[in-house]
Structure formats: structure tokens, C-alpha cells
Write a structure and sequence with these properties.
By secondary structure, the protein is mainly α. It has 13 helices and two strands. A hairpin with a 3-residue loop joins strand 1 and strand 2. Helix 6 runs antiparallel to helix 7 and helix 9 crosses helix 10.
Length: 276
């Protein structure tokens, strides 16, 4: 299939671009340039497959990426509609700039204050049943790693268990809204940490410090432990060697670079993650 009529995506060599990259880049440029005004409908899939010489699968992937960037949304009865591109920049979690670590670090920075306050509130308010759930969640991470898993889902479940112990359901709802971004960030950080036993041990000790402070009801210690965990997570990512960003870790980092909080918040309210 002939590639769409587009120049190379910013920061990405033309040779490395996929057809979906190219179509996304063309459409994004047209939207930001005003070719498609706000509330205008994008052309049909059939038209775009013919215009760009690509398959429907490629077009659908491009539309999905535009949605994640907050440039379009699907409206019942109206098809795919253009949103205000200026609004799409306001809540960007990451910006493609050639540095795959940057999107991950921005998520970690966002989490730092959230996780610290969640841990502090959990130490102050948690019930015995909620503490038991936090304990089980931490044990589940260990089991997953022992069994050869990456522990990503279990790591997220540990933080969700802490969010439930705050007594404020909005923390759990917020984690639910950000689940995809959090999963990608955790996948990148855990993948890096799994490569070295000393880093894995650091993370285990940091999780245990959070758990122990919540168990003891020590508000300040819990806040500090969670803050330091995020700070150390950022340090571990900053020191990773460039070769780490090939493969799945690089793909997850690139998804974070395209993630857009404004687009997420415009979607229907997400349900809170179900209790295990």
C-alpha cells in the first residue's frame, strides 16, 4: 500500500514510521491547522482508506490515537468529531520529544503527591479489613514475581487497596480513570527493576515501608515512605541505559507520550476497579 501523503513525524525518522504513524500525523496536522474545524466530522473510513492508500485497520488505529490525544471523539449519530486542539494540549500527560523516559517520569511526578497523601490518609483511617487487603495485595506481588510474572497488575492492585483505605472514594475513582497510564508506567518501571536484583529488593523494601507505616497508623511515616518510593522510582528510570527503551518498554513509554488526561476525563465516568 502506498504511504499517505505526509512528511516524517516530528522526532521520529521517516524510515521508522508505520502507516498508522503517518496517517495519524497527517490528520493531526490538518486538525491543528484548521482544515477540520471544531465539531466538524472526519471523513468516513472508506474515504480515508482510498485517500491514504491504507487498510481500514490502519485508519482505525490512527483514529484511536487521535482520540487518545484529545483531538477527536466519537459521538452517537455524528461519527468522529473534531475537538478543540488547544484544549487537547492542556492535560497532556506526556509529549513526544525523542525522550522515551519523559512520559514515564511525568506520570511518576503526578503520582508522587497522590500516593503520598493516599498513604497518609490510609494510615489515619484504615480499618482492619482494609489493612488485611493491603497485606494480601503486597503478598500477591511477591507471588506473581516468584511465579515468573511481571507483577504489574498486582502492583497496581496494591496501590488501589491503599486508595480504598483512605475513606475517600475519589482516590480510587481517579486511579480507575488513569488505569491504562498507570499500567504502562508500572510496566516500564517494574521491567527496569526486574533486570537487577538490587533494584527489585529496593522496591520490595519501599512497598514494605509503606505497608508497615499504614499498619502502625503513623501518618507522617506513611506519607514520607510513599513520597520516597515515587522519588526513587523516578531516579531508577532516570539512570536506565538507552537500550532499555527498545521493545515493550519503549512501546509503553510511547503510549504514555501520547496519553491525554483531558481526553480521558471527557469519556463516560469510569467504574472504580472491582475489589478482588
Amino acid at each position: 500500500m502506498a504511504p499517505p501523503r505526509s512528511s516524517a513525524q516530528a522526532g521520529k525518522p521517516a524510515a521508522d514510521m508505520t502507516l498508522a504513524d503517518r496517517v495519524t500525523q497527517v490528520l493531526a496536522r490538518q486538525i491543528r491547522g484548521g482544515a477540520y474545524p471544531v465539531n466538524a466530522r472526519l471523513p468516513t473510513e472508506k474515504f480515508m482508506t482510498q485517500e491514504y492508500g491504507v487498510s481500514r485497520t490502519v485508519v482505525r488505529e490512527a483514529i484511536s490515537r487521535l482520540k487518545s490525544e484529545g483531538l477527536v471523539e466519537t459521538r452517537q449519530g455524528s461519527g468522529t468529531v473534531v475537538l478543540d486542539p488547544k484544549s487537547s494540549e492542556a492535560f497532556r500527560l506526556g509529549l513526544p520529544d525523542g525522550n522515551p523516559a519523559r512520559g514515564v517520569l511525568r506520570i511518576i511526578e503526578l503520582r508522587r503527591g497522590i500516593e503520598a497523601e493516599m498513604a497518609a490518609l490510609a494510615a489515619e483511617r484504615r480499618s482492619d479489613a482494609q489493612m488485611a487487603q493491603i497485606n494480601r495485595a503486597l503478598q500477591a506481588i511477591d507471588r506473581a514475581v516468584r511465579d515468573g510474572g511481571d507483577g504489574v497488575a498486582e502492583d497496581l492492585a496494591f496501590h488501589i487497596a491503599i486508595s480504598r483505605a483512605t475513606g475517600n472514594p475519589h482516590y480510587t475513582e481517579l486511579l480507575g480513570l488513569l488505569t491504562r497510564a498507570l499500567q504502562d508506567a508500572i510496566r516500564v518501571t517494574r521491567g527496569n527493576e526486574a533486570r537487577r536484583a538490587d533494584l527489585a529488593d529496593e522496591v520490595r523494601a519501599e512497598h514494605e515501608a509503606i505497608r508497615a507505616a499504614i499498619q502502625a497508623g503513623d501518618v507522617q511515616a506513611a506519607r514520607t515512605a510513599a513520597f520516597l518510593h515515587m522519588q526513587n522510582t523516578a531516579r531508577r528510570i532516570e539512570s536506565v541505559d538507552p537500550g532499555y527503551w527498545s521493545g515493550a518498554s519503549g512501546e509503553a513509554a510511547n503510549r504514555l507520550a501520547r496519553a491525554n488526561l483531558g481526553a480521558v476525563l471527557r469519556e463516560q465516568p469510569a467504574k472504580s476497579p472491582k475489589k478482588p
